[in-house]
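Cross-posted from the bioinformatics board.
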Amino acid sequence: MGGKKTWLIHAVLVFFSLLTLLPFVFTVNNVFRTNAEFYHAFFSVPNAFKQTLSIAGGALTGDDTPIEMADEEGLIRSLDKKQALRLSLTNATRGPRLAWKVIRPYMLNTLVVVSLTVIGVILLGSATAYILARYRFAGHRALFLFIISTMMFPGVLTLVPSFLLVKSLGLLNTYWAMVLPYIAAGQVFAIFVFKSYFDGLPEDLFESARIDGAGHLDIYWQIVLPLSKPILSVVAIMNILGTWNNFLWPFITNTEGKHHVVSSGLFVLSTTAHASNFSTLYAAYAISSIPLLVLFIYATKPFIRGVTSGAFKA
Amino acid sequence: MPISRKYLPLIAFLLLSVWLLWPPAEETTNAGASTKHPEQAQYVIKFAAGWAYLPDTHPFGIGKPLQGLKNVIRDFEARFPDTRIEVLTVPGVREYLVTQLGSGEAPDILNVNVENVWTDVQKGWYVPLDPFLEQANPFVVEQGDATKPGYKQWWDMFRYQAISRGKAAPDGLNYCLTFDMVETGIYYNKTLFAKLGLAVPETWEEFIAVMEKIQAHRRDDGTETVPLLVNIGAFNDWTTDLFFDQLYYDLLPGIDLVQDPTREPYLDGYLDWDELAFLHQKGFFSARDPRYREVWQKMRELKRYTNKNLMTDDLIREFVTQRGAMIWTASPMSYRLSGDKSLGFDWGVFYMPSFTRTTSPYASGQAMCVIGGAATQLEVSNSAIADTDPSLPMRERMAQSQRLKRVIEFLQFICLPENNAQIVNEYPALLPNIIGVETLPILQPFAEILDRRYTTTKWIFTFDLRFSEIQQRMLELYLTDGIDLDSFLHWQEQNIDAAVANMLKRKMPDMQRLEERWQALAPVRATMQDLPMEEPQL
Amino acid sequence: MSVRLQSPLSCYAIVLPSLVLLTTFVYLPVVWAFASSLYEFEIGADSHFVGLAHYGEYLGQDPTAFPSLANMLVLTLIAAIMRMSFPLIIARLIYALPTERWRYIYRIVFLVPIVVPGVAVQLIWADMIYSDFGLLNELLRGVGLSHWTRGWLADPQTALASIALIGFPFVGGFEVLIYYAGFSSIPESVNEASALDGCTGLQKFFRIDIPMVLSQLKLILILTLIGGIQGFENIFILTRGGPGFETTVPGLWMYFNAFSFQRMGYACAIGVLLFAIIFGLTLLNMKYFKSSEDLQGVR
């Protein structure tokens, strides 16, 4: 009885996960397909894979006839097995290789911007949330409203003034042009989450520390930060995702193009010649999501613990 | 053991990435156009070259990485050791243009479509090029042959004069250097045409008949074939101008009010924005104007044979997989089709067939005009004159700026036929606009189309971006049966009203002069039928 | 919850960095934008004061105003319903699995799609599902309903609904995890008690489970509302707000006015109105939030 029910649940979950994973599979699949293939069918097994398989099959059956294949310039050439195998591998990896050439310089920039942002957001967010959660003082509620309200400002509205501001501060073409506004905006959601988490912590902890004469800094380092470990990874991941996906701002503030991050690099890629070169574009998407995937796989457990901690509610 | 199992996926990922990301030796050898360090260069000129010629890219995923522009830049830098040209990639999104040009951070040379340029010229964001175009190209002069185009005027080097000069902004000045050409054509599936016994249509009626037959045709699996693949952008831009030209051509002697002395030899009968505004105030381009109604009615007729989803940029798949028999698109398509080794059918190109008297009583019988034009339009931004005092008038800044001088020299350099050919003809997608640079064979059909007469006007590039945006939306709604013709025309009238008001406010043209010309042409108009305005009968 | 009322100075000192950043990089631009809404203002050109004229123009004359507000409402409501139903069911199903191993696997599977860029998802839906020869039309042809085929995103009757359903069934993302967290914090005693009462299946789902994740549902609701009122990027890519104004939302119109139509002041006025709507909703919600907190205290 129970087993039957479990199978039913599996069936439903598998069905939904297939639907949900389709865009992901589509993206990865197109990494290995040429532009022409993409125009012959929206979704199919990459030709390079089919070729590799058939060459391998030929090798098994001892078939020695030369294989006719199109090379990188589209010329049909007659090749022996070894050459053909190498060519089909070259074809399959062409998209990723080109994409990597384009986005490699942006990877390091992304790393710097994302790390600085996430550190700033966690430090500022948790400190401010700690004060807001554990103390009541004049202007407390107004302060919280002041912070939370910023989630409601439409982003398009402030694009131009923010740009003029960053320019007048002399921050154009620096990492700070991205990091500082990102921290400023990103800390708000962090404060929101941290606060609801800290609200749920028992007051005794803080009380006893205070009786022992601990200052704000001691309490923050010794109690708040250690206790907020589970929620840290949630805030970090959500913040990293947000920073990762923002393309317009890095694009506009990097007028010399030296501090582009992956997202703005991809934006350039998708609006120029490369856009018609789908394998490059999709390979760039896929490559740029690898660090995120790895992050997810190793952060899922603390992440789920964090979400489960009960801070995600309103 | 549990630890190693936990990290197995991580190791797999790292290995996979290394395998994927390993840079192949043969492609990393000649990266970087310039060997010069920026600190050695007195002038670092930023050049947003546009999608077509970006060094090291493979347009449409075909062929070798591009080198042409890189080589020309190297030659230029060798000639001017104090200069370094940096090629940038810049998409023409408005947010980018507005922030960068507004703050003087834009690249020195931009590649932006003319409609975006016109909107902003009065702000001093772009440098007018006329003073330079009207003088000799120094690189031609130094070759010593006085018969070569460019020896007297840089202007003379351009093959398609009407289109190049047609890019002049409403203030009469030219901010765009028309570097190359793109033209539209209807690509058709020759194999399918042969199978159905169809010939390339010569008239609108034949065209409709061909599309009827394709629509009635069922493939072996019972599926239909879309006769014509086209998107809403083509309706909004190309079809409007083509049909307008077909139906209004005969009226031109009575409504072409002013002749621009410098451009008229090239743009015979062209209706500029002030003329369109004036004519609209006289009742043209309204629900009362029978020709104007006809423009949109014909478009609806065409829509019956097209794909249903007009809001798409991605119709090539339908043509390649033979679900569509024809696709109306621009010349780079030839290169894409020729690079496709598994196409499985023959293709050809023809141009939109012309209206006849059967199509409409207002049809002029003229062949369909040219509507395409400049593909890569290069502009010099305010960054090029950043070495001068911003409070001075544009003319003085232009005269003073040393940086601008070098920027212009670079543009003159890439217009030299030998340099131009290296860039434009590296692969066949766009047509050269420089005399002495031949059009590649695969693009020859488009060169023939470009020899036709240039359009009477370019509607969506005449007014502001708002006009074009609203026309496209309401046109799509009308074509998809969301509203009827009268509602559409009502919207369109309001749209033109608003656009005209905006233009009059910004540019303040001499409407009195137009009125005088209008009066003078009254006898000519007296012979014409079905004009929308009430005029004292002569 | 006990709270101390002391040492405000040190409190202010700790929140100061947050506030400085917020004031500089968020409020300064926002104030600039709010002030601009009172001017006829175009970047790179002279501006002049027009008072509240832009607000009057938007609410009184702009033909897009009310249709686009209605579109926004429809899109936001559908998004809210979707994000509060399918992920909830999935989370409940995962929670019902007997082994932790499978629960873990599914949680990851439903999280992975987050890394796929939105553009790729839009492209798949526009080209693979909604196009002339997309999945939907082929399906209709297959069952003999070819007269129902249409350009889903171009047809005024279906464009809005088609946009609303992009991303169906909306289960790839944080929502599943957040609801799952809610379910897993249900005390075992509650489950046992309900089992004793003979409360099982759907009945239990509606009477026990849903009330236990109410606060999570509310969080998702707020986030969806804020996102729905501000967001327009997907519409911009898919239909530009057309045909006509069938899929235009105020945020999109604001964008066009700011960057294409050279009417920054007018765009700012629309932005201020949008802010007012979100602010009003949030205040309403906060009031409700407080009362539910009180309720918990009573229980």
